[in-house]
Write a structure and sequence with these properties.
A hairpin with a 2-residue loop joins strand 1 and strand 2. The chain is built from 6 helices and 2 strands; from the N terminus they run ββαααααα. The chain is mostly helical. It is globular and about 45 Å long. It has one domain: Ferritin (Up-down Bundle). Helix 1 packs antiparallel against helix 2, helix 1 packs antiparallel against helix 5 and helix 2 runs antiparallel to helix 6.
C-alpha cells in the first residue's frame, strides 16, 4: 500500500485492507501513548479528565481495528508481518506519529502538547477517511465511520482546551 499527501489530501494506491488495520492499530497505540504523556504535563484537572476519557476511546478504537485485522486475516492471506510493514512504512505523512518515543521530549508546555494532539487527530481523520471508500465490509464501514466521528470530536475537544 502506498499513501501520499497530495495538496492536503491523502491518496492511497495499492490498497490492502489488512495493512489499513495494521496502520490504524499503530496510530491508536501511538495516540494512547501520546495522550498519556500529555496527561503527565497537564496540571488542569478538567483537561486531565478529558484526556482519560480520550485514552479510553482510543483503546476502544484499537480493539476495533484489531478485530477488523483478525477478520481480514481469516478471509485472506497475510503476506506481511506486522512489524515488517510498520517498519518499512513511510510515516512522513503521519507527523507527529513519526518518532513517537522522542516526542515526549518535545512536549514542553500544555499548549504545544494540545497543538500536537490536534495535528494527530487531523492526520487520523484524513487517513481513516481516505480508507473509508475502499473498505468492502458494511460492518467495517460503520465501525470506521464511527471512529472518524469520534476522532473529529477529539480534535474539537483539543481545540477547545487550547482556547482555555
Amino acid at each position: 500500500m502506498k499513501i501520499e499527501d497530495r495538496k492536503g489530501e491523502l491518496v492511497i494506491t495499492d490498497f490492502a485492507e489488512q495493512e489499513v488495520y495494521q496502520i490504524a492499530s499503530k496510530i491508536e497505540k501511538d495516540g494512547i501513548w501520546f495522550y498519556q504523556k500529555v496527561m503527565e504535563k497537564v496540571k488542569n484537572e478538567y483537561a486531565r479528565e478529558i484526556l482519560k476519557v480520550l485514552i479510553d476511546e482510543e483503546k476502544k478504537h484499537l480493539k476495533l481495528f484489531e478485530e477488523f485485522l483478525s477478520i481480514a486475516r481469516e478471509h485472506g492471506s497475510d503476506d506481511n508481518e506486522d512489524n515488517d510493514l510498520l517498519d518499512s512504512m513511510d510515516y512522513g505523512i503521519f507527523q507527529p506519529f513519526q518518532g513517537m518515543p522522542n516526542i515526549g521530549e518535545l512536549i514542553v508546555n500544555t499548549d504545544k502538547a494540545l497543538k500536537l494532539a490536534v495535528i494527530a487527530e487531523e492526520k487520523s481523520i484524513k487517513f481513516y477517511s481516505a480508507c473509508l471508500g475502499k473498505i468492502s465490509s458494511k460492518k467495517t464501514i460503520m465501525g470506521l465511520t464511527a471512529v472518524i466521528e469520534e476522532e473529529k470530536k477529539h480534535k474539537a475537544l483539543f481545540e477547545k482546551m487550547r482556547l482555555k
